[in-house]
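User: quick one - fold this with zinc ion bound?
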Amino acid sequence: MTLSDEQLERYARQLVLAEWGAGEQEAVGAAAAIVVGAGALGTIVAAYLAGAGIGRLGIVDDDVVELSNLARQPLYATADLGQGKADLLARRVGALNPDVVAEPYPVRLEDANAEAIVGAAAVVVDCTDSSSSRYAVNKGCCAGRVPLVEGGVAGFEGLVLSVVPGRSACYRCAFPTAPVDARSCAETGILGPIAGIIASIQALEALKLLTGVGEPLLDTILTLEGTTMSQLRVATARRPDCADCGALRSNPGDTPQS
Ligand SMILES: [Zn+2]
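Assistant: Sure. Structure tokens for the protein plus zinc ion:
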């Protein structure tokens, strides 16, 4: 793939970076990403990945736009109420950047379909808001050895963890069981910009994983508390008995870590 004059202009501000050149741009342009969940996190992640020139972008969500979404999902408008999010967001990111092949999946990702949806992607960004979906995404990514960026928000807090299955701790390694206080976003509440910050970190992590630029948050849970802006980096590690990734070798051909 050679960059056209229009692409050189579209991506000029990232191409000028010392860490980012035609090789990184072409790697992103050749890659397929899946964003699971087209809500507060997923809309922002999809916009940044499309803007950066991702080649294919799958958007998985079976919800429709509701009035209570708009305070934190700025890619949707009041006139969009009732429309399916996956199709709508795919159209929006396709309009943002016609280079991107946007593919809507108007379904709920669960154990039965996870591997089929995520298996061919170069990176998956999990923007769901339920722990059952989160574990399904993690399991599918581990089975397909697809790098994953996990993110979550509740109240004023958020966290991000990147995963390279077989090499670093997966979501289930880091969180073997769902938190007891796994209340929904509707119960806990959320202020929009916290989701925007966490989603922006997720998009950055996805671009790092796709290009090898920088150091992704492997074996590291980044947490952010928005009322004080305090950040923590919490170390985590692979668990040999992990049901999702324990059997994966660190590299094909290596001996298992367990
Ligand atoms: Zn694991």
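One thing worth noting: The radius of gyration is 18 Å.
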